[in-house]
Design a protein that fits this description.
This protein is mostly helical and about 700 residues long. The chain has helices at about 5-25, 25-55, 80-105, 115-130, 135-150, 155-185, 190-195, 200-220, 230-235, 240-265, 270-290, 295-325, 325-360, 375, 380-390, 400-410, 420-450, 460, 470-485, 490-505, 505-510, 525-535, 570-590, 615-625, 630, 660-685, 690-709, and strands at about 60-65, 70-75, 550-555, 560-565, 635-645, 645-655. Helices cover about 70% and strands about 5% of the residues. The longest helix is centred in the middle third of the chain and has 36 residues, at about 325-360.
């Protein structure tokens, strides 16, 4: 057995040892095994995925033959390897976090739940390595069932049932799409389907796209079928929500990318436009509801929808460029999409850990009840702040790089000739720009209302810092956020290894020019271009850093040599230098010769500032509610309390937002189903002669159809 086979087998062996140990060991020991097995198996998975990603050929492993289905085998190509890498990065700290949370309140969890958690990790890997339709659908279904068990382990079943029901509808759509592709290719193998993917008719392309896009989009959180996500996320125990939000959400996006790049070649620009606009609308709706929610976990759930929309928008741009023949722009957009997918997994896992830590310490998730937690939980506050800055796309953290790349990719639409497509790009770009602005508002509000100011309730005053293992998990993700933001010129070539086989063009050459002398390809750059950028520092540390360069840019022609350029590496160094210099200057000229004197704070002339007087999360979000009232369209109810008939004591007005997707998708379906049920109920409550008439009518219709045929 070679090294890769040994690594791959070791992943499953470690997980299976953990599952068996959890089932046979006492509860305290079994919970510890969850963290040990989950983190160790994920670490080995990371090493395996990295090896596959950096080798030229996919990893292939034949299993066994099943009559009527064919040979089951495992294929890990560069796209699968990238998603396995993302899974491992999120699963390592998430497993430790889950173990810690369960160990604090083991009586709240069923004995089998930790085993189901590890089983979910196994099923996720199988989804990503499946190489034929049957194996993929079987793994997908098993994975969905395990997610359902984890969501329902919080003892609230209704959201779990909604998630499972809508997920099964999506699975049926995926099944039909894959069967159509398999029928066209004459094989269930993904390799065979992909080899025939360019021979589909225009009509079949659209059918397969719509079925796969909205089928996988249910799992990925895209409109119009994402109403299950805030409901399910809000009731999922805090121990498991990081793995569900940070990993399983990616599987829907993986399916969309796999089917619409690898299994079929999309030659129609209209399909890309649908993806582009759907993603942009998903993003703006997601962040809008995240900005006004009071429940911290629900805020993060809506934010997951927002980020899924951002990734989908970039993927739509890639499809448009690819179908229009602009392969370099397509590669850049797809790299940006996958970069943001990686970033989202990291900072969203971190933020859900933070929300879980706050809930565990205070017993509340309400932003209106929080405040002043930074004094009680300083390390948690620091890590949540890093997550908030990352998700708000603030430099030098990772969200800034990927969102900047996505917006720059959208601007490349100037190269296209179709006016209608350009308008679609303008709309998508405007929506994403608005989304980015609302994201900053959303997470300033989330962090400020929870950690800053004064404690609003007694539980907040009694909060304590989390355990060292939880802090270590969050610290790992926080440092990863910083590394992914500061080192984009290392990350882009890595992601490009997954993109280049799909698009047929390298994004690395376009985005990371080889300024440094240890790359022979530098000789291909115009000398004036290299000299000009050496003058502004693009070649700093060229003999020290093992990279093509430290500047991300897109090179144009002679008239416009640089279309865009950015370096978070240099930005980070300058920010650190300026902060350090400011600290030194303040100490030298201000603090060194002055004593600190503590005086009573001025609170607007009042003797004491009470928590009820402070700004709340609801008040902070009120301008957004007012501006977007037409979209939010809250249901208003008035409650009157009166003395006698004509003397009113109080009038209480209550506003409740009804989600846009509930109003236009879920409620109409429910109303139609209820009306249909009433009609059918009447048919089942009649006289015997009526039933005989139904049977006779059915026979007559069948005879007419038979004679007509």
């Amino acid at each position: 057995m070679d090294n890769l086979n040994l690594l791959f087998a070791s992943v499953f062996i470690i997980y299976f040892i953990g599952i068996v140990a959890i089932l046979v060991l006492p509860k305290k020991m079994s919970v510890a095994m969850l963290g040990l097995s989950g983190a160790t198996g994920s670490l080995v998975l990371f090493i395996f995925a990295a090896f596959v990603l950096f080798r030229s050929n996919p990893y292939l492993l034949s299993l066994w033959e099943i009559r009527g289905i064919g040979k089951l085998s495992i294929t890990v190509d560069h796209l699968s390897a990238f998603f396995l890498l993302v899974t491992a990065i999120a699963a390592m700290p998430a497993s430790v976090f889950a173990s810690t949370r369960i160990s604090k309140n083991p009586q709240n969890y069923n004995t089998f739940i930790p085993a189901i958690y590890l089983s979910l990790l196994v099923s996720i890997i199988l989804v990503l390595v499946a190489s034929n339709v049957f194996f993929f659908l079987l793994s997908w279904e098993v994975m969905s069932i395990f997610i359902y068990f984890l969501v329902n382990s919080g003892k609230k079943e209704h959201p779990g049932y909604v998630m499972l029901a809508i997920g099964e509808a999506g699975t049926l759509a995926i099944l039909v799409a894959l069967v159509l592709l398999a029928q066209n290719a004459g094989t269930l193998s993904f390799a065979g389907i992909g080899a025939n993917g360019s021979h589909l008719s225009a009509r079949l392309q659209w059918v397969v796209f719509l079925l796969s896009f909205f089928g996988f989009g249910i799992k990925g959180g895209l409109i119009p079928f994402n109403f299950w996500m805030p409901r399910a996320y809000s009731v999922t125990p805090s121990a498991f929500i990081p793995i569900i939000a940070g990993v399983t959400l990616n599987l829907g996006l993986y399916g969309i990318i796999r089917v619409n790049t690898n299994l079929q070649f999309i030659s129609q620009t209209g399909i890309g436009v649908v993806i582009l606009i759907t993603g942009a609308i998903t993003a703006i709706i997601g962040i809008l509801y995240a900005t006004i929610e009071d429940d911290f976990k629900t805020v993060l759930a809506h934010s997951s929808i927002e980020n899924a929309g951002i990734i989908t928008t970039a993927f739509g741009a890639s499809i448009i460029f690819l179908s229009s023949g602009y392969k370099t722009a397509a590669a850049m957009a797809l790299v940006a999409a996958l970069y943001h997918l990686l970033n989202h997994s990291v900072f969203k896992t971190l933020l859900f850990m933070g929300s879980g830590a706050i809930e565990d310490a205070t017993g509340s998730r309400s932003l209106n009840q929080m405040g002043g937690l930074l004094k009680k939980m300083p390390w948690t506050g620091l890590f949540v702040l890093i997550g908030a800055l990352s998700i708000s796309a603030m430099p030098p953290f990772n969200g800034f790089v990927s969102e900047w790349l996505i917006l720059e990719s959208l601007l490349r639409s100037v190269e296209l000739s179709s006016l209608g497509v350009k308008i679609a790009f303008i709309i998508a770009g405007a929506l994403l720009a608005l989304t980015a602005g609302l994201a900053v508002t959303c997470f300033i509000r989330a962090f400020g209302m929870s950690f800053l100011g004064m404690s609003r309730t007694k539980p907040m005053q009694k909060a304590k810092e989390v355990t060292k293992s939880t802090m270590a998990s969050m610290a790992f993700l926080a440092l990863t956020c910083l590394a992914l933001g500061v080192l984009p010129t290392f990350i882009i070539p890595t992601i490009n290894k997954s993109v280049e086989p799909l698009v047929g063009k390298s994004a690395t050459v376009a985005l990371v020019p080889p300024f440094f002398t240890n790359h022979n390809s530098k000789d291909k750059l115009p000398q004036k271009f290299v000299s000009a950028f050496h003058d502004i520092g693009a070649g700093v540390a060229e003999d020290l850093v093992p990279a093509r360069g430290l500047v991300v840019m897109h090179r144009g022609g002679k008239a416009n040599p640089v279309i865009f350029a950015m370096s978070t590496s240099y930005m980070f160094v300058m920010m650190a230098f300026l902060l350090g210099l400011s600290a030194v200057l303040v100490w030298v000229f201000v603090k060194r010769k002055r004593k600190v004197v503590y005086l009573p704070r001025w609170d607007g002339g009042i003797k004491e500032l009470f928590p009820e007087m402070t700004y709340t999360a609801t008040g902070f979000a009120q301008p957004v509610r007012v501006i977007f009232d037409t979209i939010l369209h809250p249901e208003v109810t008035n409650q009157h309390e009166s003395v006698a008939e004509h003397f009113r004591v109080t009038i209480r007005r209550k506003k409740e937002e009804v989600h846009l997707m509930d109003r236009f998708v879920l409620y109409p379906v429910i109303n139609f189903t209820q009306k249909l049920s009433k009609i059918l109920a009447k048919m089942h409550n009649g006289r015997l002669n009526t039933y005989a008439g139904y049977a006779l009518l059915s026979i007559l219709v069948a005879l007419i159809i038979a004679l007509a045929g």
